[in-house]
Amino acid sequence: MEDLKSPLLECPSAVTVRRNPPRRAKAPFTTTSNSTPASKSLLKRKEISSFPLQEILQCQLVPPPLHPTSSSTSSTTTTTATNNNHSEHLRVFLRIKPLNSNNSTTTTTTTTSKQVKGKAALPALKKKSLKKTESDSLCLVVNDSQSVTLTPPQSLQDAKRFKSEVYDGFTQVFDTDSTQIQVYEKVMEPLVVDFMDGKSGMVAAMGPTGSGKTHTIFGSPKNHGMISLAFAHIFGLSTSSYYISMFEIYSERGKGEKLIDLSSSDGPDLFLQQSSVRGLQEVMISSVVEAEAVIARGMLRRATAVTNSNSQSSRSQCIINIRGAPEMADGDEVLPNNAVLTIVDLAGAEREKKTGNQGTRLLESNFINNTSMVFGLCLRSLLEHQKNPKKPLQKHFQNSLLTKYLREYLEGKKRMALILTVKAGVDDYLDASFLLRQASPYMKIKFNVIEEEPCQKRNISKLPREEKPKRRKLSDPDAYKIDESKSGKDPRLETELVSVPLQQQECLHCSISSSRSAKLEINERLQLEEYRVEINRLKRNEQVMLKFSKALWNVLKQYKSKLEETENEVRGLKESLEKENVRYVELEKEKEELMSCSRYFKQQSAESSDIQSCENGIGNGGKCINDDDHSNGDKKERDSWPSDSIVSSSIEQFLVENATCSATEQSTVLGEDEMTSHASEVSPNEESGSVDRCNASIGDLRHSSSKIQKEKQQRRRIPSPSMLVKERNDLETDNEMIKDSQILPTEKAGSVDTCSMGKIDSENISSCKSLSEKKPRRRLLPASSVLLREINDLDLNYENERPMGSSRGGRKLAADGIGRTQGSVSLLKLLSNLNL
Ligand SMILES: Nc1ncnc2c1ncn2[C@@H]1O[C@H](COP(=O)(O)OP(=O)(O)OP(=O)(O)O)[C@@H](O)[C@H]1O
After folding, report:
1. Is the separation of the CB atoms in 670 and 771 below 8 Å?
2. Quick one: which atom of ligand 1 is closest to the CA of 312?
3. Which residues line ligand 1 (CB under 6 A)?
4. Does the annotation flag 336 for ligand binding?
């Protein structure tokens, strides 16, 4: 039973039941010291890991080696395959504009010159202190070459929506100290090298207004921008000529978009056809100076305006294209590769509050922001499509001229790099945050670049001038698609033939046939490339499915083990439930026992009231002892007294209730003491008789008392014997006190007489009760007062006196002084016999 009384099973003192408790995840099953094995296992239970879907979808296809037998060959093949694949991530750079651009420009210049001389020129300490004061007013801090931390200003930190964020994974982060050359080396140089190798590429600068896009792309006479540095690089590597074109997309007063040629002022109007600009003039350049002159002219024509954020804010998207010009080699014109290097300076996103734009500027601002948004949407859609091929590539590019023109880049078909420019001031937090949130995911974009093949060498010196626009068409991959089913000839070429003079047709036919064979070859290659891409796609799908099934298998295994654990736990809980049931039954039994006990005690208490009446009966018994007529009745009454056990139970009940059990004993002792103490005053015969009777009575009571003691010990519910002894001692002490108290000799004699006349029972019990109630004087009062009154009334006609009433009313009669009790009548008779 004891082990069942575990803390777990204890009933709580109070239970609060909520009517509508808030929905919460279920609290884990807590256990106590006697927790079941199932619950222990529950504690150990591991969470099922999340399904690695993203990981699976991002899996890269590793092309298998073509010649597995030779390891060296295989490695070479792998490298080649990787090179051919040209699948690479979009490179995203971040450039932070110095807080005070004027100072910083000087600082940058100084740093650059010092870099040439040696970096140790600036004392490290001064540099540190400068950085510290700067960092106090910065919202953007560079962590390392690839990550930054954006911290909101204190005013925004209070609104808990804003908190510090770390943006990681940039291709390179350029600190405020970075130079144009450093930026060029990382951003442009790879693109220029690729361009020289015949691969197209694009770099676009995007960011909020005044953050340094134009500065980065075009630079200044002192700090050359990416374009100038690129030309320097290109012309440093080759002596060839190049074509350069520069145009802007501008929206005048927000009324539609316009293409404006910046490289020439006298050209026709421009219009966009698919992804090429019709009517755009290209300027041939052969040196850096020429290139810079064209650019400078274009910059002068570019739409700019003064805003609160920038004294020369660009109001348009500016695009510069560089492509190779044909060369003359041994009288033959050698066509260059089709690679185009595109540099885009986007107009910076503007916030009306900051720029303070109104009217026309505001309309321009709307256009700029709209274009930036569409540009961002295109990249976003590309990213989502790449993440989940089921998601179609949205045609956001249709929403602006810029995105239409850059469609191939925005669809991941050509290489591209992004330079994000930001201002790191506390005031620029919102701009920086918007840009970083928008553009940082673009790092995951991948390009599946289809390699452009260099054009075949051909003799174009004999070709007419009209061939020029045709050549530009060929750069478009669509141009290579020949509908041979309709006619065996290219209709465009046929049309061209009509316009060519007759004497040149022969030459042209030769040229056409050679170009046709070249086109067919390219077409085949394109088809092959398509197959290769398709095979790659299928292989990737296969790998994804393989990984998916593996991951699914793992997750299912985890679920299975979890299920087993749960089953164990359920088993354990069932066991504990059974135990609880057993305990419940036991407790029910116990409760039944206690109920029966309580019923018993109730019964006993009812019987104790009977004992009271019995005690009164004992009072009457005294009368019967002296009265021979009533001796038989007395005996009957005695017989009808409750048995010892009942008496003892009743007395025990009294003991339990701290009542007068001990008083009974005391009364016995008191009677005994009284008898012994006053024995000398009584005649020997009477004495012996009364003593015998007293002894008998005392014996009965002692017998009862001993029984009580036994029952007490049996039930263990009553005070220990030592306590009883103590009580007894107390009672004896009380008794002594009574003896010592002022008891009249008549009272003493009365009491002795009462005893001698066998009245010990009722009188003594009542006096005993009185003693137990701590009223020692009053205990003897009834007998003594009665005696006194009787003696005073000696002259009354006692002969006629008869004891009146029943045994129960005896005491009352004595008290009112009219009737006589049995004792008083006997005493009066005695006294009259003695002639007193
Ligand atoms: N890294 C830098 N170092 C020194 N000066 C800079 C830097 N970046 C920008 N500046 C200066 O800040 C000013 C504004 O820069 P810029 O015109 O390039 O901004 P923007 O982003 O092109 O703005 P908008 O989008 O309005 O055209 C210019 O005077 C420029 O010289």
Report:
1. yes
2. 17
3. 97-98, 101, 104-105, 108, 207, 209-215, 310, 312-314, 347-348, 421
4. no
How far is the centre of ligand 1, averaged over its atoms, from the C-alpha of 442 (Å)?
A: 23
Decide if 315 contacts 325 (C-beta within 8 A).
no
> Residue 501: pLDDT band by 50, 70, 90 thresholds?
very low
How buried is 751 (Cβ within 10 angstroms: 0-12 exposed, 13-18 middle, 19+ buried)?
buried
- Domains of the chain, with CATH numbers? 35-78+474-606 (no CATH), 89-112+129-448 (3.40.850.10)
Which comes out higher in pLDDT, residue 340 or 749?
A: 340
Among 349, 265, 288, smallest CA distance to 313 is for: 349
253: left (phi over 0), alpha (psi -120 to 50) or beta: left
Measured CA to CA in angstroms, residue 607 lies from 163, 638, 785 at distances of 83, 16, 32
Residue 459 token pair = 């003799």
Say how far apart CA 602 and CA 719 lie, in whole Å. Answer: 20
pLDDT tens figures, 523-555: 777 778 778 888 888 888 888 888 888 889 988
The whole-number pLDDT of residue 24 equals: 47
Residue 30 main-chain phi, psi, to 5 deg: -90, 150
- Residue 671 and residue 693 in contact, taking contact as beta carbons nearer than 8 Å: no
For the residues of 542-553, what is the DSSP string, one character each? HHHHHHHHHHHH
For 173, phi then psi, to 5°, come to -110, 130
User: What is the C-alpha separation between 318 and 236, in angstroms, rounded?
Assistant: 25
**Confidence (pLDDT) at 342:** 93
Three-state secondary-structure class, residue 463:
coil
Q: Which residues are CB-contacts of 277 (< 8 A; sequence separation ≥ 6)?
A: 245, 247, 259, 270, 271, 405
Question: In the numeric block, which tokens belong to residue 5?
Answer: 């009384």
Kindly give the number of the ligand 1 atom that is closest to the alpha carbon of 217: 18
Give the burial class of 380: count Cβ atoms within 10 A of its Cβ; 0-12 exposed, 13-18 middle, 19 or more buried: middle
Per the listing, tokens 């910083």 go with 104
More confident residue, 594 or 608: 594
Cα 356 to Cα 426: distance, rounded to the nearest angstrom: 19
Segments of 159-303 assigned E as strands = 165-167, 172-174, 201-206, 242-250, 258-261, 271-273, 276-278, 283-285
Q: Whole-angstrom Cα distance, residue 138 to residue 45?
A: 47
Instruction: Give the C-alpha separation, 740 to 754, whole Å.
Output: 20
Report ipTM (2 d.p.): 0.97
Q: What percentage of residues in the chain have a pLDDT greater than 70?
A: 49
- What one-character DSSP code corresponds to residue 803? B
Query: CA–CA separation, 586 vs 767, rounded Å?
Result: 48
pLDDT of 590 reads: 94
Gap between the Cα atoms of 227 and 217, Å rounded = 6
Alpha carbon distances (Å) from 48 to 31, 551, 727: 22, 12, 73
Pocket test for ligand 1, best of 112, 175, 215 (most atoms within 8 A of CB): 215
**pLDDT-wise least confident of 150-164, 495-509, 512-526:** 495-509
Ligand 1 centroid to Cα of residue 91, in Å, is: 22
Q: How far is the CA of 61 from the centre of ligand 1 (A)?
A: 42
Taking the whole predicted model, whether its pTM rises above 0.80 is answered as: no
Closest CA to ligand 1's atom 2: 97
389-to-88, 386, 393 alpha-carbon distances in Å:
17, 6, 9
- Which pLDDT score, from 0 to 100, does residue 20 have? 46
